[in-house]
Amino acid sequence: xxxxxxxxxxxxxxxxxxxxxxxxxxxxxxxxxxxxxxxxxxxxxxxxxxxxxxxxxxxxxxxxxxxxxxxxxxxxxxxxxxxxxxxxxxxxxxxxxxxxxxxxxxxxxxxxxxxxxxxxxxxxxxxxxxxxxxxxxxxxxxxxxxxxxxxxxxxxxxxxxxxxxxxxxxxxxxxxxxxxxxxxxxxxxxxxxxxxxxxxxxxxxxxxxxxxxxxxxxxxxxxxxxxxxxxxxxxxxxxxxxxxxxxxxxxxxxxxxxxxxxxxxxxxxxxxxxxxxxxxxxxxxxxxxxxxxxxxxxxxxxxxxxxxxxxxxxxxxxxxxxxxxx
Length: 326
Description:
This is PAC2 family protein. The protein is α/β, with parallel strands linked by helices. It has 9 helices and 10 strands.
């Protein structure tokens, strides 16, 4: 039985999770959750027992000095709570449960059951899992983010992609399926990271995931230095690509393919929507802050269609799988 005596009662809680490893190309997903913890000063209230889920020869513990005292940090998954807004403030009150850790080495079903046990005890209404995959996408264009679910009703209600993936999966896919069996609505946000620059960090992909999370949950996220980091990252990759004519030519071919595929999306409605979003962020207001109702976006709202990730065979690669999974 999970005891959470130290955690206060939460308001409209949503669980947001990310795991380092196979489903985290460029560390984009785990960095996005780390950003939420940092900006909203998340308070850790629980950690899973490392002995139950991790092979320490694969994910080794770290020894460090604390005022001359040697301490050990064990690889694990931690849960924290962030409280957003206030009952009498301009931003409507809402709480997030953040889950950040490493993809477990063993006992995945028990791992997911333990995560869902916390979700049940805290009254979590929906689970959002962040992931990042390697794709044939140019670093010079906006990062494609695809929102998928295995829940047919949720896909229809929120205008999401319904997962049709078949193949090897990671803890992201297993957790989403576990949510479905437990009757907990679950959505996965997948960011596509250029496969030719897969090494972490990738602040541009992390930023894209946070923007998608804003849209899904209808909230404003403080971005801090992340936009500037994303610009610096792109400039750095531009410089590296310019030094290699073959890479530069390849990037150009990806740009042409991407622009051709997305030409119908460059509509006036999509541009106006993005500009409205920018103005809300500039004024410090969350999207839809003047509206009443659920934390979920109105399913009748008009949104530019999210691009699909590239087709290809799924399989483990350095920094992430090729396909969005579940």
